[in-house]
């Protein structure tokens, strides 16, 4: 009988979560490096360069790849000849490891988990509880997969209870454009087929724990129907031309993973979950000999990509910005923002609405200002702010007209804007600017000062004022309502079809 001590399990979980907060899986980095070399879209190539540069910076600095340090998912295969030496439940022990990782003072991770999700949505402060799946298996070891899944990609999960004769490929191709860019491509697609509704979702999530091997699969050819389906979906999704960050290009996904399970004769449940540019997962095995510490990758394994601001980018002074200047920007323009900008995301926007409805004064004047949709990681050491990449702008769509009515000149976030928000932006002659998701540490280097100016009780969702220097963004929706997330993929879809471009794996 192998004895797994409480202390060893806690330490191993904590180490793995810290590890994946700043180290990408190297299979992802290698695949992204290949995609960077092959990419022909300037905007997408620039975005991939930011992601790769950010990844190496995080590996060197041991700081989070993304400001959204995720909801923790744990897959446990517990050997039946193992015993947990603890008076606490397995869930409680693993959550103690999560707590230890997220409250680590040398690299404190953002706590994003809210209790009472339907009502008060209170932050648990330590990112617990985790979501755990346990399987009892023969053997005398405990095998654990640890993942930290960001909300932007998790929110794009799809499920359908199909008819047995329905096409899985057709459904995937229908869903991908609906997912937009909030899941921060290029990433992976995890697909679960069969079982029941909940089983297919677990299969999809579990499939994402595997290594990227599409290049090897395509080189040797498929050996079964599942492998052939993986290749077909990979090629057809990339042919859509969505590209990195939805900016149009060759690489939307780097791999497709599929797990299946027997199902009822009347059913074909299918789930799809994307993994984002901040792909974070690791595997370790406990054998009773002590805690497991993961081996750090070598920095020379990263591609030699060092992002610098585009020389053609337009420098913008936020402190003297006027509507006339905003109206000169065209979709696709690259800007470097300088000066003071405000922040605010879901909770702040909801509170602003409640205050306006009640006739109460706001803590901040938004007239003539730019707002950044962000919830930063707490700073450590001499940092002004921790990793501070953009959150999904689409979630703020329902507040857009309200904010523009306050005199807001522009917004910064990630992913696309919906039709109503785009219309409001055009009517106000405003603009929406896109920062790269998955480059949070790189972006934070452009933030030179930070202070809370409103709703301090909201923590990372408070309103901050950032002083920025050469903060890189792309004009995603201009004052005429021209939307790069709608237009660029169409151009690249046609180009891929016309020129027969194949996405490398």
TrEMBL record:
Complex formation: Homodimer.
Example GO molecular function: fumarate hydratase activity
Entry-linked PANTHER family: L(+)-TARTRATE DEHYDRATASE SUBUNIT BETA, L(+)-TARTRATE DEHYDRATASE SUBUNIT BETA-RELATED
Enzyme Commission identifier(s): 4.2.1.2
Catalysed transformations (reactions): (S)-malate = fumarate + H2O
Pfam families: Fumerase, Fumerase_C
Highest rank taxon of the organism: Bacteria
Entry similarity comment: Belongs to the class-I fumarase family.
Role according to the record: Catalyzes the reversible hydration of fumarate to (S)-malate.
UniProt domain Fe-S hydro-lyase tartrate dehydratase alpha-type catalytic: residue ranges: 11-284
Protein name: Fumarate hydratase class I
